[in-house]
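Check the record.
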Amino acid sequence: MGRNKSGIVRDQRLQAIRSVLKNSGRLNKQQIAERLRAGIGPDAEKIETRTLYRDLEYLTTQGDVEKCYVTTDGSLIPEFDGAPDKTKRVEWAIKGQLQRIRGVGMLESLNACLQAPFDLAGDLSVESNTKHLKRGCVNFFFPLSHQFLRLSVDERALPITLNVMRAPDENERRPLLTDLQKKYGRRLALLQLPIPTLSSFRSPQTSGHFQLYIERPQEIWIQDCHSKNGTSTTILSDQEATEILEKGALLGERTVTSMWRPDQTSHPPETCPPGERKNAHLPTLIEASEQFRMLVIASHQ
């Protein structure tokens, strides 16, 4: 059984690499090494770069891991068969998860769904029961099925459009990302949630409950998609946003949406006119009904 200078047997290294990629998604070699050091401890410091590379190549050959090429801004290059250079770098991911958004499996377990195109999937992530802002991202916090969730969109993915809608019933048509991209452009993500009071996809013209267009980190445009229950926004101070976050984190599994709201805010709620884009500076609280609210906060690097 092979060992390197660290004293860690090969099987242990391979299992640790699989675990890192499974938990963290698509990573480059330096990021993998950093997470190995955090997980294995001091012994990981002694793993040589060439040993790590050989392990990754072995896992790729075995079909456990797949290699991909990305541009310097992190965008995937589909079907690239050349060699890395100053404009391209190599990253690795668990086989079959290259196009999956990090944490999307948790959403699926709650009967929700998040879709994004191939080259944006790596810039979106979902985590549960956290009140912390992900640095360099626009963060969307919302309660769902006794969970307090954070959807993060990396600033490098901007501009991006996010459509929020009710997840379809069995007898309803499930929206296709490609259908809506014809109207709203390729940089589009769909968030479908099992919340009865949200409006569902009916056609590309009435595509869900509300839509968010994020062009810059500190402001967004919100449009109600002719929903049944309407959409409103409340601009918050940093302190008000922090208080709402704290309340959501404290409620945890006991989160009830009607309880997750500010007691008093410096700005009153404003209704979004159906079909018209409304500008809202961050942080802001979006209310789609008594059963759904979403807190939006940006966090710079």
Observations:
- The two ends are 43 Å apart (CA to CA).
- The longest strand covers residues 137-144.
- The mean pLDDT is 83.
- The CA atoms of residues 231 and 270 lie 9 Å apart.
